[in-house]
């Protein structure tokens, strides 16, 4: 396994819709293993393939209470219900957080590493938020496109994720 280099906004690959996976082979398994290791190394909850420079519909999610990462190949959101506001960050926009609009319930259909279809749902929890966040990534959309207040982010202290005393509009990443 290897830690892959992350791509950061405004890298163009983050704004492109990813391609559907057609081959479920050793190469895909290696990519997924490397993505999981990269996500763990970066202390993330989820990671989409385009965040490591690969334009395929692959994402991994591991909430703190989960023993293993959830692997989503060719995920598609089938249903969303309700609206909520959640604090959010992204490995591709390091050092910043914002309040994003998210669904209360999210149902996703995906394939596993063998190509078998399965469904997963999250409701009013971190999994629901991550499912939406990662599938949006695969469609070329970042959480900064879904902020409650357009462009409103704050810089966080790396040690405690609390807002810094700096002006929150300083050094904002481009959202386009």
Please give a handful of descriptors for the protein shown.
176 residues, 5-stranded antiparallel sheet, 30% strand, globular, alpha+beta, 2 helices, Peptide Deformylase
Structure description:
The chain is of the alpha+beta class. The protein has one domain: Peptide deformylase (Peptide Deformylase). It contains 2 helices and 8 strands; from the N terminus they run H-E-E-E-E-E-E-E-H-E. The strands form 2 sheets. It has a 5-stranded antiparallel β-sheet, sandwiched between helices. A 3-stranded antiparallel β-sheet has the order 4-5-8. The radius of gyration is 16 Å and the shape is globular. 33% of the residues are buried. The model is unreliable at 161-172 (pLDDT under 50).
In the CATH hierarchy, the third-tier topology is known as Peptide Deformylase
User: Low-confidence segments, ≥5 residues, pLDDT <50?
Assistant: 161-172
Question: How does the helix and strand content classify structurally?
Answer: alpha+beta
The first-to-last residue Cα distance is 33 Å
Number of helices, where a helix is a run of at least 4 consecutive DSSP H or I residues: 2
The quaternary organization reads as single chain
Q: What spatial order of strands do you see in the largest sheet?
A: 1-2-3-6-7
CATH superfamily: Peptide deformylase
Q: Which percent bin holds the helix content?
A: 10-25%
As for the number of domains, it is: 1
How many extended strands?
8
Q: Which CATH C-level class is it? A: Alpha Beta
Helix and strand run: HEEEEEEEHE
Percent strand equals 25-35%
CATH architecture assignment name: Alpha-Beta Complex
What would the principal axes of the Cα set say about the shape?
globular
Q: How much is the average pLDDT?
A: 92
């Amino acid at each position: 396994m290897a830690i892959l280099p992350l791509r950061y906004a405004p890298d163009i690959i983050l704004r492109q819709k990813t391609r559907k996976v057609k081959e479920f082979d050793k190469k895909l398994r290696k990519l997924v293993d490397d993505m999981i290791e990269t996500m763990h190394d970066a202390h993330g909850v989820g990671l989409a393939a385009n965040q490591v420079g690969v334009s395929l519909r692959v994402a991994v999610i591991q909430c703190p209470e989960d023993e293993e990462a959830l692997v989503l190949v060719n995920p598609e959101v089938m249903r969303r219900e309700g609206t909520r506001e959640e604090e959010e960050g992204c490995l591709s926009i390091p050092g910043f957080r914002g309040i994003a609009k998210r669904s209360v319930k999210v149902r996703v259909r995906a394939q596993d590493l063998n190509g078998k279809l399965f469904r997963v749902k999250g409701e009013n929890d971190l999994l629901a938020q991550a499912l939406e966040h990662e599938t949006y990534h695969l469609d070329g959309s970042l959480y900064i496109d879904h902020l409650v207040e357009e462009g409103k982010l704050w810089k966080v202290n790396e040690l405690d994720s609390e807002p810094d005393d700096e002006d929150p509009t300083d050094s904002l990443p481009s959202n386009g």
